[in-house]
């Protein structure tokens, strides 16, 4: 297996992998699972997703299996997800983050962004 790809250090000291697998429009479970497998085997350690991509559960199942197999630890993989525009209100944001955590089968998300920062009224 190749060494992991280069990281950048963010202002808070967290290492951010330069290369990541974007998963927008990756709806097919078999295809996404194969892409995740190839990406990790190629040295990718960053996976970018969002609730709006409708694939967090596929990614969560894949990573959960990898972690349980002992091949990777959670700390090996940098996960980015995003807050959908219809959850931008403070009362909804915490719920939406919890739902992403459940779907991704993880206790934390490394980077959580505001997706399309133009909330609905």
TrEMBL record:
<dbReference type="InterPro" id="IPR018170">
    <property type="entry name" value="Aldo/ket_reductase_CS"/>
</dbReference>
<dbReference type="Pfam" id="PF00248">
    <property type="entry name" value="Aldo_ket_red"/>
</dbReference>
<protein>
    <submittedName>
        <fullName>NADP-dependent oxidoreductase domain-containing protein</fullName>
    </submittedName>
</protein>
<dbReference type="InterPro" id="IPR036812">
    <property type="entry name" value="NAD(P)_OxRdtase_dom_sf"/>
</dbReference>
<dbReference type="GO" id="GO:0016491">
    <property type="term" value="F:oxidoreductase activity"/>
</dbReference>
<dbReference type="InterPro" id="IPR020471">
    <property type="entry name" value="AKR"/>
</dbReference>
<dbReference type="InterPro" id="IPR023210">
    <property type="entry name" value="NADP_OxRdtase_dom"/>
</dbReference>
<feature type="domain" description="NADP-dependent oxidoreductase">
    <location>
        <begin position="20"/>
        <end position="120"/>
    </location>
</feature>
């Amino acid at each position: 297996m190749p060494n992991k790809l280069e990281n950048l250090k963010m202002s808070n000291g967290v290492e951010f992998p330069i290369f990541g697998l974007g998963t927008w429009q990756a709806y097919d479970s078999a295809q996404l699972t194969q892409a995740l497998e190839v990406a990790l085997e190629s040295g990718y350690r960053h996976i970018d997703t969002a609730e709006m991509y409708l694939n967090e559960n596929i990614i969560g199942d894949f990573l959960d299996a990898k972690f349980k197999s002992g091949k990777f630890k959670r700390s090996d993989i940098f996960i980015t997800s995003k807050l959908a525009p219809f959850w931008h209100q403070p009362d909804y944001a915490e719920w939406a983050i919890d739902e992403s955590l459940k779907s991704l089968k993880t206790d934390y998300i490394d980077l959580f962004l505001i997706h399309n920062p133009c909330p609905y009224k």
